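Exercise: predict the structure of this protein bound to magnesium ion.
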Amino acid sequence: MSQGPSDVTNTVASLESHTPLRYGQPQQHAQEQSQQAPLTKESKWLEIYSPSRTPATKRFNTTDFLLDEGQVLGEGSFAKVMLGTHLPTGKKVAVKVIDKQSIPENMRSYACCEPAVLSQLKHPNIVKLLHHDEDSRYIYIFLQFMEGGDLHSYVEQRKWLEEKDCKKIFSQILDAVCYCHQKNVCHRDLKLENILVANTQVGNKKEVRAILIDFGFAGLMSPNHKFEDYPGSVCYAAPELISGIPYDGSKVDIYALGVTLYTMLHGCYPYYHENKNKMYNMILKKELEVDAALTHECADLLARMMHKNVDRRITIQQIKEHPWMKDCYSGSFVFSPVISPAAQKLKQTAMRLSPAKLKESLSPARAKANAQQRDANANVSPARKLRF
Ligand SMILES: Nc1ncnc2c1ncn2[C@@H]1O[C@H](COP(=O)(O)OP(=O)(O)O)[C@@H](O)[C@H]1O
Ligand SMILES: [Mg+2]
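Solution:
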């Protein structure tokens, strides 16, 4: 690891007052520049950030980055994410600055694992790690900057998203999570705030692009291994996490993906109460209620992803083969036309459950409220009250 900034006090002051933080001497950098072969800014960027093409020695230097004044992209309990610039190319970057001193002793190990995990992951829907560094007080994680903001704000602005829009975003995140699981990494903090979205130009069309961030709670999985630490956000926590029993990391990711999809569709969490204990109870015992306006396939997928019985919860492969995912699958996964026995079974179950049956499964009070609301305003679905 390269040496971090020598003046830690200066760094702290820079972060707090949002004055630009520059590592090293600018003159040095200018000298290095003049000795290099002429490259366009774009090709230089591509050369340094493509790990498969570039020897480790030619990758990023901490001294090449500058934090932009006052540009905070987001803030968590222990980290501040700031906008920065890669000076040789002028490219914008996101710099996650983690204050080691503010992390409680029992959580220190999480802070160090994020760059280590990210360095193993290369996927179009996972944020790219460019570089990392640390000094005695801070860890600096230099990341690909994603313009557009997080999915939480995106949903908040729009109140809720239509199924077809959710599908575009969800399929990309599913791809990313599937890839992580193949690499034996579980995320353990999947939620709207940890998904960034941006509109990108694809040919003549604008397409929404989603990327997964924040691998601060990621865990390394191995066969038959069960985790016994309980990170993440309560609203997205699977029942086995609430119960505090040893758990399978991939299964809690699937449950959290279910909550993510639910929240995109409804604009509110599936189980929410200001009183934490009541909320725990809801997660453990309360039957899932979905908006009656959802298609049967969508409601079916939500119920399977958020199954309280971990052994009966759907697998990632089954999600990919689920009827709701059929017509819009983006990303690197190519949908297989051969229906596996598992998918066939799912299809049969789905056909047995008519949409009317599914509506019956909603609590009578909810079903009545839904019907009244629908009559009152045909365009507004009842469960879609924003409640973040
Ligand atoms: N690469 C990025 N590009 C743009 N914004 C980002 C980026 N990474 C993080 N953010 C913003 O900062 C917020 C916090 O980042 P995150 O990595 O989730 O930190 P924390 O561990 O504190 O939750 C995100 O919700 C997002 O709004
Ligand atoms: Mg986060």
